[in-house]
Design goal:
The chain is α+β, with helices and mostly antiparallel strands and about 300 residues long. The chain contains nine helices and 14 strands. The protein binds zinc ion.
């Protein structure tokens, strides 16, 4: 596809693109809208699609690069920066089988200068994460898209132009949950308590140890909800109601300038006023979202800490 055709195609799919300088990775300031101070800005396209007219002025010829905005509308790109990291991942997805294998084989992918980009969509905005050889591009980022040309002269090429971007429930549908949990750097203002830092140790007090560990008679979910106070994830939260029920904290899921994350201690749920959380999260959902894992995996992980 030519660059103009390609830009219009993504727009039609509800995905925002921006103009990038030819054989470069930086936004083309001469084409972008300007803020009050006259500075060119690409960030507005994290929240809106460019118009058809904007696209037509941006891409009249091929001598320009194009980037796709990640994060918005749940778009996530796994950026494998070398062939070895990509093949290791494919060996893992093949062994895992099922939906993981299907998604890794069928979702839209792009050959980059040195590696490969794998596109997926999630039902919410994801956090950026970095692993050995894999960069997860989500909130606040962008990736160069075909037919852009890398500074080295190599052209970005879709593996299959017609492939769709597959919707997954959690990153752990396409990456090992253990890897995600191990490498997740929690956003500022969030801790997991009592959590990884406080795995129960055998105690000298024999009477105390009797009650440790999950109780097979009771539903695991109830035990988790009882053990983890949702407020303990947000040590810097501020009380906003006299009765100690409502709290506010910085949202871990977007660049928050004033606390927009609410916590309801009475119902043990939380959420973001800026729409990061389509539904309120309980402690299991919260732990899952922070780590990029599914709710089932979250139950497994939290139950190990009971
Ligand atoms: Zn938020």
């Amino acid at each position: 596809m030519e660059i103009l055709e390609s830009a219009l195609y993504w727009r039609k799919k509800g995905i925002a693109v921006i103009p990038i300088r030819f054989r470069d990775k930086k936004p083309d300031g001469s084409l972008l809208p300007r803020d009050e101070k006259g500075k060119p800005v690409w960030e507005p396209f994290q929240k809106r699609l460019p118009t058809e007219n904007e696209i037509k002025t941006w891409f009249p010829s091929r001598l320009r690069n194009m980037a796709i905005i990640t994060g918005w509308r749940g778009l996530v790109v796994l950026d494998f920066d070398n062939a070895a990291a990509f093949s290791q991942w494919r060996v893992w997805t093949t062994r895992k089988g099922g939906f993981t294998r299907y998604a890794s084989e069928s979702t839209y992918q792009v050959r980059t200068a040195r590696g490969i980009h794998v596109y997926v969509r999630l039902p919410h905005t994801e956090l950026n994460r970095k692993f050995d050889g894999i960069d997860i591009k989500a909130a606040g980022g962008y990736v160069l898209a075909p037919p852009s040309i890398h500074p080295t002269g190599i052209q970005y090429q879709a593996v299959d132009e017609k492939a769709q971007i597959i919707l997954v429930d959690a990153l752990s549908d396409i990456l090992p949950a253990k890897l995600l949990e191990k490498h997740t750097e929690l956003p500022e203002d969030v801790v997991i308590l009592p959590g990884r830092a406080q795995v129960p140790q055998p105690s000298d007090d024999l009477w105390e140890t009797v009650n440790r560990g999950p109780d097979p008679e009771r539903a695991l979910v109830d035990q988790i909800r009882e053990k983890f106070d949702i407020l303990s994830f947000f040590p810097n939260a501020e009380k906003t109601s006299g009765n100690g029920r409502w709290y506010r904290s910085m949202c871990p899921f977007h660049q928050d300038n004033h606390p927009s994350f609410w916590i309801d201690r009475a119902r043990q749920i939380c959420g973001c006023f800026a729409a990061c959380t389509p539904k309120p999260l309980d402690v299991i959902n919260l732990y899952a979202r922070l780590n990029g894992i599914s709710n089932v995996e979250s139950i497994f992980s939290l139950s190990r800490l009971l």
